[in-house]
Amino acid sequence: MLDALIQGILLGGYYAILAAGLSLMFGVVRFINLAHGDLAILGAYLVLFGVEILGLSPLAAVLAMLPVMALAGWIMQRLLFARALGSGVLLPLLVTFGLGAVLQNTMFGLFGSDTRSLGNHIGSLSWSSWQMPFGISLGKLPVITFAVAVAALVALQLMLSFTKIGRAIRATSSDPEAAELSGVNARKVHRAAAAIAVALAGLAGAFLAMRALINPYAGPTQLIFAFEAVVIGGIGSLWGTLAGGIVLGVAQSLGSTFSAQWFQLAGHLVFLGVLGARLYAAHAHHHGGWRAALKLPRTVQPRAVEEDLP
Amino acid sequence: MMSPVSFAIERWTSASRLTAALSAALLAVLVILPLFASGLVVDKATTLFVYVLLAVMWNLLAGYAGLVSVGQQAFFGIGAYFALRLVDFGVPPYMALVVGPLGAGLVGAALSVFALRLKGGEFAIAMWVIAEALRIAVMFDPAVQGETGTSLLALNAFDPELRRNLTYWLGLGGLTAMLVATFLLLRSKIGAAAQAIRDDEEAAGSIGIDVMRIKQIIFVLAAVGCALAGTVWLASAITFQPRTSFGVQWTVFMLFMVLVGGLGTFEGPIVGAVIFFLLQEIFGDFSVWYLAGLGFVAIAFALFLPEGIAGWIQNRSEVRLFVTGRKLRINPQ
Amino acid sequence: MTILEVENLVARHGLLTAVRNVSFSVARGEVLGIVGANGAGKTTLFRTICGIHPATTGTIRLEGSDISAYPPYRRVAAGLAMAPEGRRLFSDMTVTDNLKVAGENGRKGFWKIDTVLDALPALKPLMKAIAGGLSGGQRQAVAIGRALMSNPSVLLLDEVSLGLSPIAVVGLYNSLAVLKENGETTMILVEQDLDRAMAFSDRIICLLEGAVALHGKPGELGKHAITDAYFGLGKQVATRA
Questions:
Q1: A303: nearest CA in chain C?
Q2: B196: buried, middle or exposed (CB in 10 Å: 19+, 13-18, 0-12)?
Q3: Does any CB of chain A come closer than 8 Å to the CB of residue B147?
Q4: Per-residue pLDDT tens for C102-148?
Q5: pTM to 2 decimals?
Q6: In this complex, do A224 and B259 lie within 8 Å of one another by their Cβ atoms?
Q7: CATH number of the domain located at residue range(s) C2-240 in this protein
Q8: Are A183 and C82 an interchain contact pair (Cβ–Cβ within 8 Å)?
């Protein structure tokens, strides 16, 4: 039980990497990318290509994959996504669904249908673990994945808080028109966000391929998990994404102690439960009454600074 | 002062009367088709019916009510599953194939209370998750045997020729019933209200439209339609595999057909389904590269011709084959 | 010397023509007040000049170069900035970050955070506050400061005093008077309060149904003529005379 809990928390790190890119696209570009999972798989195949064909070390292959994926994101934003923006929810879904079909089947055509894994290339890392007190063993790979996830989120947070591009990204996410009026080229910001998002997807894919078997059609399932983590954690919040990933990971890990099928089902049910609870809270809030009184305020009240200006 | 203009609201134009007459004639031909056509043609036609039905249902949801769902495979699968289980309980197979979709309609009604309160992208993906959850739930049923699936063995009791024709008639009947229901629904007040909701939900609510009820009606109708497609598919394939029946590819196909044909037009999904059917027939053998090509076509239509083929034609001509709205005719003075 | 020149500008909202053939020019250091009833097209005119709303026809020239085809951010780089109606701050960011966004992406020049704080001292205690939590007057001050940060040669101020308390309006106009005094920044402002607009502007344009109904110096026009034009009574006056 405790073991499953720890495994779940560590698994949440993987989901946080996977979901952070989706959340960034959603929050900044206001774009739902249904090919996000397929892009993760593409990243994994690129790493496999780097290791098996180019003979790179796994670490070098991952480091080489990231800029390639970022460039791919930049190009896709420029050529595809930007054209589908601003016309409701339908066109982005159609374009990225189409992109997903292209990616899946092209990968199938190029790499074949065999399931593949990076596990063989990372030596003992894929199975060795650290022994902790109380008989708990921490797998090295899950711990490294979690640490990389936290590091990536911290780096992203620092970038958003303290750099010019970060401030421009936040401004565009808050009010695209006002950002343009402040001299920000929103389309450039969107491309930057897409580059980061797709690179993050690739990173997640690399970690997926290290711990599991992948095939060209594995993307949609990963997309669902990413979306669940984003929604559970709250859209547009980086640390919420980590929290959402951990909740999802724990639910799946606990579920898998019953049966393999419960692994996915538990995650789905938690996701639907969270959505339902939010609807219920909004409903109760709307109708007032004792239920609403029990709810915490949905957002922290903004700091009141009313008295200073004449 | 402007001179007085006399006008009339037309619900039937000469073109649409002609279309109705031709449709009736086509239906008559299709009903007797199995009597003279080869088995292969009958099988292919059944497949086409399934595609048209799916496309029309997805268009009803997204094109007329603004409900973009990525999870319609939930009903495709659950309809087939209910039909299977009804047969296990002793219901005659072909009756089960009709009653199963009604059960899916009940599931749709129950889900609608939750799902229809979600907005935009959340609704789209939540439907997908619901479909996945239903798939896993169905796999828990020992009769389904997990991933392996099961077969509608009761149909083997029928002579293959008869079975093929019965399945064909089931598909044709189901498609006709759903097309007529959709047409009448869109011509009714509900259709007008649905389009008002699609265009501006808040405004529709403020003029007294019961937004939730209208969406529910359409959602449940689409659930029944997709489930019917699922049972017709089951009847022609015999085998039921959760991963296939609940697969997201059904929604991908629906999206493709509706997008290419023309979202929000009555003719569009039918045109799209025929094109998709032909593409499957011609290029289906090329397998993965063909599927990648479909993705390319979908992207191209979304970016460069989002109104689809039927929408493109409608924007350039006055003729409406199926008048679902009201056409204003100004009488010349 | 003319700094901004708008020629035969037309802008539509669907079938509705919101800006009809508007032409005017502004000299360096001048303050132009634009008045008109609700729906007269003032905000659309501003949004069109800034490039957020597409112009159907017409030319906009800034310091001699044609910026009509520029996207909004390039107009900012060319020297145009707007404090939009409704303030439109980046509400989940601090005031400092709001200013920095414009400072980093706009033109460089005299206006930096410390010079903006000198001109708008009311912002000093607010720099670390989240913009979304500010009062109306504070938000307007941040919006003006943010627009200044991109060092515009022409500053557009939409609905300067809308929704502000009388005290906040006085405070803002005191700050704007400082800007006017140093003569570096050309200002075009939309103002509902006719008296304020007349007192503060060097010239007044009155819009009626999207077209220029009256144009001139406030002293020469007189309040009566402006109110007539404001309510669309101008034409009748003209025909009677």
A1: C133
A2: middle
A3: no
A4: 999 989 988 899 988 888 888 899 999 999 888 888 898 899 999 99
A5: 0.86
A6: no
A7: 3.40.50.300
A8: no
